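pipeline stage [seq->struct] | target=Kinesin-like protein | organism=Papaver nudicaule | residues=971
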Amino acid sequence: MASNSGPKSLNRSQNNGSSNTSNNSDKQVIHTTSSSKSSSGHPPVRSKPNSAKRSVTPNSRAANPNNNDDSEPARVRVAVRVRPRDAEDLNSEADYADCVELQPELKRLKLRKNNWNADSYKFDEVFTDSASQRRVYEVVAKPVVESVINGYNGTIMAYGQTGTGKTYTMGRLGKHDPSERGIMVRSLEDILANTSPTLDTVEISYLQLYLESIQDLLAPEKNNIPIAEDPKTGEVSLPGAAVVKIRDLDQFLQLVQIGESNRHAANTKMNTESSRSHAILMVYIQRSSLGKADNEVSPQDRDSKRSMGNNMNTLHKSKLLIVDLAGSERIAKSGAEGHMLEETKFINLSLTSLGKCINALAENSSHIPTRDSKLTRMLRDSFGGSARTSLIITIGPSARHHAETSSTIMFGQRAMKVVNMLKLKEEFDYESLCRKLENQVDYLIAENERQQKIREDDKEEMEKKLIEYRNSFAEVESSLDARSQLFENENNRLVSENQRLLDELKLQKDRNDVLHDQVARLEMSLKQSKQNQLEGSSYQKMLADTTQMYEKKIAELMEQIEDEHSQIERAEDQLAKVKQMLSDHQKSTERQEKQEIDDLKDKLQKMCQVYDKTVNDFQSLKTENVELLSEKATSSEELQKLTQKLSAEEKQRKHMEDEFYKLKKMVAENVNGNGDKSSTMKEINGKVHPGFGNSLSFSRSFQQREAIPRVSKIFEEVGLEKTIAMLKSQDLEVQIHAVKAVANLAAEDSNQEKIVEEGGLDALLMLLGSSENTTIHRVASGAIANLAMSEKNQGLIMSKGGAHLLASIASKTDDPQTLRMVAGAIANLCGNQKLHASLKEDGAIKALLGMGGSGNSDVIAQIARGMANFAKCESRGTVQGYRKGRSLLFEDGALPWLIDNCATNSSSTRRHIELALCHLAQNDENAPDFVSSGSVKELMRISSESTREDIRNLAKKTLKLNPMFQSEMEC
């Protein structure tokens, strides 16, 4: 909803004149391209930005080249749907006639003031009570959905009095009957059918505006989500809201079921399932397509561009809001009180703010009060903004609600005067291209760093190995040097021995040469002797002897020479063997060195592995040591703080007791003029009203008496913190006065959070467990019942054993007023499904049913209310699919108790019992118990005799859908 009074007001004034005479929403809008992006990754909730801050990409294009304006006005389309007459309308037919007359063929509606006067109104479409869900969707929502698919923002909203069918029109799931599906499911079905799951993105957020606080229905832990506005573009976003990507319709239905289970609803006189919050479904669509420049080039050029990475995609980003507003209601008709009264105030306040904005836009006011409510801030783009908007208003035909129907119709008439400026958000996908390049650069940088790190690690490892190898090589080299020196010495010895043998052989050769010379001389001498033989015969005999002697010596020398030759050959063989041995020794040494090097490598690798493991173990031990030291320091600090806190609380308690004794003295002095102290205290003790209303809050009627205002004023002066501290006093009288003061303070919703923060809940539970006084039991139980109305306090009560204490009190007392307080507290806890199992385990359900034996009507009324709360939560969980199995109530005999008390005279008690039976019967697992106990007959009676139409319809539906019940009815 726009809040700028400049260009927006001018556009409204220019187009308002033709808004009622022409259907501008059916025109083809002019395309524009916006370069604004959402930093959160999905389209935020946007308002219409200031025209001076709007940014347009250089390639913006318009559908009409002769028109320089980039937008076209589109009036808000409004349709009317009339709810069929319900049972209350039929029952009151004698007193009230229909005040609405429909003319659907003329798209007109007449609202009768009386029998002779009526006002006529024209709308874009008028639906009768027989209009189908499909026709409502195609007329009201489908044009908006098609615009959203094409890139425009859109809004579909339902407005009307509570109980007129807004949630049925918008959020009906139609699990069993597809024809009953509402606008929400049908819209997502069309969107998913017209988008590609691979190229396009569809995301949703589901929120509720409850008590002027935005809560996430898909993630209930996210509460009070802030609304952020971009100061430059004027766009509105919801940081922190959960955004879920949708793959198919089944996933969407599951998410909507989860959201509906977390949405606040209540039972009022106007509607048994009245929505207490505004529900907003946000659908974000992002579609990708080739840009115009890429489509105009030839296929060959486009292929070349794509191969070079120059093709550019365009993105269409759009947003669809489906808004199910909570119904406006009057307190006198809805019967809201207590917490529901606060809900009604916030609902009506936000709807009033929305109506003010519609009035301002319809009147072309210069100021649009969009900041009066969070609802109008979230919808600022839907009225007077840039979204195509369709509004369906729902009314009832009965004249009993003439004022509400008239107000709803006038709201629709004013909304028809609002004109929006539609804009197409189209932008080049620079972000995805930049992201892709950044990812590539990051990958390359990381790969480069990784490779560099690997190289550095390899270098360091190789250097370490090289140093180790050098050391090992030095050791091997020294060993080889020693062995080589040994072999060299041996070789020298063998060489010297060989040289000696060669010298001996040479000497022997020289000797042989000498002998050869002697033989030659002897032969010459022999010849000469033969020559001289003739000369002298005397010399022949001597010559023969000499010759024989020399021949013998020659033979000996020849034998000696042969022996020396054999010795030389043996020496040569021995030398060859020595050389072979030396060669073999060198080869074996090389193999041994290689084997030793391999062994050293294996040992080095094992040592590295052991070292790495040792380093990792050391790091882990070091980390554990640091964590242990940190935990030790934290524990020491916490122990010291607790010690100081306990000391301070002890001093404070003593101080409070002293002050209270002073206050008692002051009370005695104040009442001396009217009576003695004991009579006044007795009067104060008896003035606490024991009853609860529909919301089970303590009545503070005792403050209207004469003596109580003085005590209340004293407690107000003392303060809540000191009053709660008095609950821990050892004086019984002090405890009684303090617990009464806390109980009356707990009756106000504004005081409950303060009481819990100051430890009041813990003190009340302590009193229940430790005190034996009946008055303390009654008043403390009432205070806990008041605190148990808050869902946050319910979890605290259960976690601190409150249910077990309440069950114990119920078993100890027979006082009807105390039992009523205890039953009311347990009944409030039964309204929280998360606590059902704990209530069963702590015996609270058994104790609640056991209190029915008192016979007191007020106690029975609270028991019936607790059974209805418990059964309703179980039924909701069963229908939504996250709870299975037989009801926990049946194990403690709840069904016979409900049947026995169906005939009670109290209409409120009877209504709660009937609701409990109908909700229990909706679970198929409970059907055998209903059949075996004969409870089906009671359901048949409820379906025809119940005083409430909604309960009769619920009973009929339950009997119709269950086959076992049908068989039992036929018998």
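stage status: PASS
auto-comment: DSSP finds 33 helices and 19 strands in the chain. The chain has a mean pLDDT of 78.
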